[in-house]
Amino acid sequence: MRIVGFFLSLLILISCHKPVDSVREIEDFNYDWKFHLIDDDSASEPSFDDASWKKINVPHDWSIEAGYQKEKGAASTGFVAGGIGWYRKAFALSQADEAKVIRITFDGVYNNSSVWINGHLLGKRPYGYSTFSYNLSEHLKFDGSNNVIAVKVDRTAYVDSRWYTGSGIYRKVQLIKTSPLHVKQWGVQITTPKVSSNVAEVHVITKVENSNDEPIENGSVKYSILGVNGNLVAEKVIAMDLKTSNKAILSVETPELWGVNTPNLYTLNTQLFIGDKLIDNVSEVFGIRIFNFDANNGFSLNGENFKIKGVNLHHDAGALGAAVPKAIWEYRIDQLKSIGVNAVRMAHNPHAVELMEVCDEKGLLVMAEAFDEWSNPKGKSLIYLGDNAAPKESAKAYPEMFNEWAERDLKDLILRDFNHPSVIMWSIGNEIEWTFPHYSKTFNDVNIESRADGYNFAPNYDPKIIKEAFDKNIEGIDPLATTAKQLVDWVKEIDTSRPTVCGSVLPSIAMASGYGKAVDILGFNYRLADYDAAHKQYPDLKILGSENWGAYKEWKACTDRDFVAGIFAWTGFAYLGEAGPWPRKGLEISFFDYAGFKTPRGHFFECLWKEDPKVYMVTIPVSESEFSFNEDDGWKFDIQLTPPPVWKNLRLWEWYKVNSKWHYTEDESIVVQAYTNCEEAELFLNGTSLGRQKRSDFEDDNIIKWLVPYKDGELKVIGYNNGEQTDEYILNTQGELSKIAMSSNKQTVKANDYDVAVVTVELLDNNGELITDAEEDITFSMEGDAKNLGVDNGWEKNVSLHKSNTVTTRLGKAVIFVQSTKKKGDVIIKASNSKGLSGSMVLKIN
């Protein structure tokens, strides 16, 4: 009778649920939107007339599309306009969809979004970096007529951040259809707590949702793990539990571990069954790895100790704004890996899923960060960095919503990115101390020394002295430490497999107040002088350089101390915003500029972070250099601080003043600098040696230097190890422009409407030498089916429209970002100047 009863129940259950043709459908919902900058709430109604609106696809960033605007923008956010924008999309559903749960997922909308379906308000989401979704089912029509989704984006506060944010639906959108019984959004969590060379335990937790809220019998969950080559390596079936989480442990024999040099990825398929009927299926990519932070020995991955060679990244990509295709992140991560980078800090907010995927696929460690501000806002700049003059209404920002939304936004970040093997820590905040004045006041009270350059002395770390001063500067409980503990508790509710961290600017005060003790790892932002004092006072403290100048002293301070896990240099790529005055739209204080060209700083750090022998050379006239030389004192460096009105200490983030050329006035005195990881370097001018020098003799800055009177011709530097030549670099005097050369980071792109090639233009003389002094207006044209996503020259003062066919070269270079369509074939890309000189190349779309 029990068997009969079970089958009867199953038949009733099936009859209650209309047949579902497919178990889970994920529809690309990026196409066929309409957009308009308009402040009219009637646009939420299905009957609203949007015939005149612009037809677009998302991701879409209206700020970068409109271009830089001095009067409508602000220094903090990159001199772009904000406003109120509306998006609308019509779509039809059939009766076959009526039995399904239908959700829409937005990966990111900046910001203050409100979403309607067929005139029904689904909800609002203020934080512009969060991924969120809504259940549309009860408000949909299934008769073949149009449903209308409307999205309002309120970016009226155009200076609501300290960097460029973008505006609009700037990340992808998906429509997801499932059975009423389905795996919850982000409902599969995978950890690998026990790993050896013989076997790895894969722990899986699955949360199942039953939207019909009806009893389910004979339900099961089937787990299948596919190996790196797609072969089945583990499988398990468990009985389904709707009330609590479904837990299972699978064993993978002889696991192929995920690491920075071996980013091996597995796939877990999670299937829900009622009887033998498949109801839902979810696939998650994951990696098998084990890592550790140690207070004395720093960081280890899979049992191997090494230093974190990290960079900070903001979420924009120069000419593309915040609407960044995955192919661009692949390009950028490849560039970073090429100079030895092995980690990225996602500054200072949740980043795109696509970037997380690329870090998984290419083997970069990730610090995932939630917030730059908590309940107290930071200053926003209007004209220039540091003026803090943004109008109050224009600077309204997330801190006004933090207390209401922080828990959800933080937990959603962790849930969304839980299974990425690249993620090794969760950051709850960046430089929060600046927004609580009692921290800075206490620091000044307990440190008598004058901070002449801001950061060059070891502060007082005596907790008793600091706590006494701290208590005098605050009444009651410290809100910063209290909030930190709450945020960490929320993280641990979801994930106990990874440590928490924060980027601290006053770690000596943070440790005494309790803020620094709330997190598992304390990140030191620009506080290398604190390392020894902090380690001595708090020997169990795990220390990480969470934000560091891209300078030799930062890396040396890390490598000289086993207990410092690594650094994250500011920054990997140039970013928009946090700059000014006009036309300085952003800061090129990075390893690569906006266009993706490697900077001198990038070459320098490649010599630090890679073992392959390398020598690189830059030059600068003595009259412009911060370096000087005399026989008595040798080489001296006198920093030239940034002149007003810009904050003078910005110079601490900038690189040395140098040129990548050999083209000056006859006999002009030139400082020649060599960056190398070789033991020695020798300089030759037109074949004559100007001396061989040891790198160890320049231990202060790791830069070998010569003083050379300029002569036309060839300047060559040769690197030596053990007396043997290992590398060389040559600069030649530039001639007249004779050729426009073109190249691409890839010769073939996929015909999927998303793939992108980065096409570079170089101005060359008749000897093939790059003409860095030339600035030419280059016009692009294309024959074939492809899209011009934008043009750029990499310069921080380039405020020309990126959505253009014309660009002025900078240092002899420029780029165009070419995106495929769905049509296969060859695309001919041409670049020409006004003098009739042109170049061309063929890009294959397959």
From TrEMBL:
Belongs to the glycosyl hydrolase 2 family. Transmembrane segments: none annotated. Residues 27-178 form the Glycosyl hydrolases family 2 sugar binding domain. PROSITE patterns: PROKAR_LIPOPROTEIN. This is Glycoside hydrolase family 2 protein. Residues 740-837 form the Glycoside hydrolase family domain. It comes from the Bacteria. Residues 668-725 form the DUF4982 domain. Keywords: Glycosidase, Hydrolase. The lineage of its organism: Bacteria, Pseudomonadati, Bacteroidota, Flavobacteriia, Flavobacteriales. One of its GO terms (molecular function) is hydrolase activity. InterPro entries: Beta-gal/glucu_dom_sf, DUF4982, Galactose-bd-like_sf, GH, GH2_Domain-Containing, Glyco_hydro2_dom5, Glyco_hydro_2, Glyco_hydro_2_cat. Residues 188-289 form the Glycoside hydrolase family 2 immunoglobulin-like beta-sandwich domain. Residues 297-432 form the Glycoside hydrolase family 2 catalytic domain.
